[in-house]
Each structure stands twice: as structure tokens, then as C-alpha cells.
């Protein structure tokens, strides 16, 4: 916005170019001795008014973690499906069973934070491909375990998974990686605290 002062005590008009968004002189501020009663016309919004609430996206941790997770999952699912005929859900089930030997859909869902329906559909795909087998567990729960074919597929995919992890961690030292893992475990432990955050009506 351009403001011109035409006080009779001025040798010539003084000009002020004001950046109203930043609240600072953006180009030049030429002043002359002017009477306080000089004719000034300005329509500048109050710079002290309360700003609208908005996320700082490049520093909002939940957003950064979500984008990272979504990007990794989409990429892994595409690569594993093209190369091995299974998606990311099926790979996670294979990984779980390779670590724990056996487990129910509920146990896998709880550990991985995934929907039980997705686990059930993934298990059905793996059973159809004879990559896992099931047996009656406690109550009505089925317990799953890897078959020899499933173990062989797991051992092929894990090589790619670890190579992808190494690519993701490029540029980080061993010390950085250890610190990162420690921070992630702290965040995982803090998940239960999120539900305790109260929502107050404004």
C-alpha cells in the first residue's frame, strides 16, 4: 500500500511503501519533518491481531510420520507384488510369523496396529498360496504358522526389505540410527497418552 504525506512543512511528498503482510518496510521509507497534524491517510490492518491456527507442516511430527509410513507402504506393496506376488499386508504377516513362529489374527493386529479385517484377508491369500497353515487355537481363534514354502518366500523378500531400509537410512551414522530407533520407541510408548488428551469446546 502506498501512503503519501503532503504536510505544508514538507519540502516534497514523502513516500512509504509498506508490506502489510510482513509488517515491515519492504522497499524504502523516505521521511521528512512533518507536523503531527499532517494529513496521513492509511488503512493498515492491525498487525497484532490473532493469527488463524494452522499446522507447520514441515515440523508437525504426526504428519511427517504418516507421510513417511504411507510412502514406504505404497512403495513396498508395489515392489513386493510385482516381484513376489504378495502385497504389504501379506509381507507383514510373513514377517510376524517368522519372528514369533505362530500367532492369531488378533495378536498380529494388536502388534502391527492394523485392522483385523485386513489381516484376515491377507491370511486368506497366504493360505490359498500354501504359504501359511492354520490350526484351531484358544476359543474360536485360528493360529497361523509358516509353511516351508512361506519360509522360503520370506527369506527372499527380507533381503529386499533390508536393502530398502539401508536406502532409507542413507546419510545417517550408526549413532544417528541408534538415536532414531530410541526416539521411535519413545513415541510408540507415548501412543497410549494420546487418548488421554482432552478435547475442550472452544
Explained architecture:
With 202 residues, the chain is α+β, with helices and mostly antiparallel strands. It folds into two domains: 1-35, no CATH class; 60-167, Winged helix-like DNA-binding domain superfamily/Winged helix DNA-binding domain (Arc Repressor Mutant, subunit A). Helices cover 50% and strands 14% of the residues. The strands form two sheets. The chain has a three-stranded antiparallel β-sheet with strand order 1-2-3, with no helix packed on it. A hairpin with a 4-residue loop joins strand 2 (14-19) and strand 3. The chain starts with a strand and ends in an 8-residue tail after the last helix. The model is unreliable at 1-44 (pLDDT under 50).
Note the topology:
Layout: E1 2-5, E2 14-19, E3 24-29, H1 61-84, H2 88-100, E4 102-104, H3 105-112, H4 116-128, E5 132-136, E6 142-146, H5 148-168, H6 174-194
Antiparallel strand pairs: 1-2, 2-3, 4-6, 5-6
Summed over residues and divided by their number, the pLDDT gives a mean of 81
Alpha plus pi helix count: 6
| Beta content | 5-15%
Indicate the percent of residues in helices: 40-55%
Give the CATH topology of the largest domain.
Answer: Arc Repressor Mutant, subunit A
Which regions contain 5 or more consecutive residues with pLDDT less than 50? 1-44
Give the CA-CA distance, first to last residue.
35 Å
CATH superfamily of the largest domain: Winged helix-like DNA-binding domain superfamily/Winged helix DNA-binding domain
How many distinct folded domains?
2
Q: Profile the largest sheet.
A: 3 strands, antiparallel
The ordered string of helix (H) and strand (E) elements is EEEHHEHHEEHH
The number of distinct β-strands equals 6
Going by CATH, the architecture of the largest domain would be Orthogonal Bundle
Category by helix and strand content: alpha+beta
CATH class of the largest domain: Mainly Alpha
- Name the strands of the widest sheet in spatial order: 1-2-3
| Coarse morphology | globular
User: Measured on Cα atoms, how large is the radius of gyration?
Assistant: 31 Å
Amino acid at each position: 500500500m502506498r501512503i503519501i504525506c503532503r504536510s505544508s512543512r514538507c519540502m516534497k511528498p514523502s513516500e512509504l511503501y509498506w508490506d502489510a503482510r510482513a509488517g515491515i518496510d519492504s522497499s524504502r521509507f523516505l521521511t521528512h519533518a512533518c507536523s503531527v497534524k499532517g494529513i496521513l491517510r492509511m488503512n493498515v490492518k492491525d498487525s497484532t491481531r490473532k493469527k488463524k491456527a494452522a499446522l507447520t507442516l514441515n515440523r508437525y511430527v504426526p504428519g511427517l510420520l504418516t507421510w513417511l509410513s504411507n510412502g514406504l507402504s505404497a512403495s513396498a506393496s508395489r515392489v513386493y507384488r510385482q516381484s513376489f506376488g504378495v502385497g504389504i499386508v501379506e509381507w507383514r504377516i510373513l514377517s510376524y510369523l517368522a519372528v514369533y513362529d505362530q500367532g492369531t489374527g488378533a495378536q498380529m493386529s494388536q502388534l502391527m496396529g492394523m485392522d483385523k479385517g485386513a489381516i484376515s484377508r491377507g491370511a486368506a491369500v497366504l493360505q490359498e498360496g500354501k504359504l501359511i497353515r492354520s490350526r484351531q487355537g484358544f476359543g474360536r481363534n485360528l493360529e497361523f504358522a509358516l509353511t516351508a514354502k512361506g519360509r522360503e518366500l520370506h527369506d527372499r523378500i527380507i533381503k529386499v526389505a533390508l536393502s530398502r531400509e539401508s536406502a532409507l537410512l542413507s546419510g545417517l551414522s550408526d549413532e544417528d540410527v541408534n538415536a532414531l530407533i530410541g526416539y521411535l520407541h519413545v513415541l510408540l510408548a507415548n501412543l497410549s497418552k494420546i487418548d488421554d488428551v482432552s478435547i475442550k469446546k472452544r
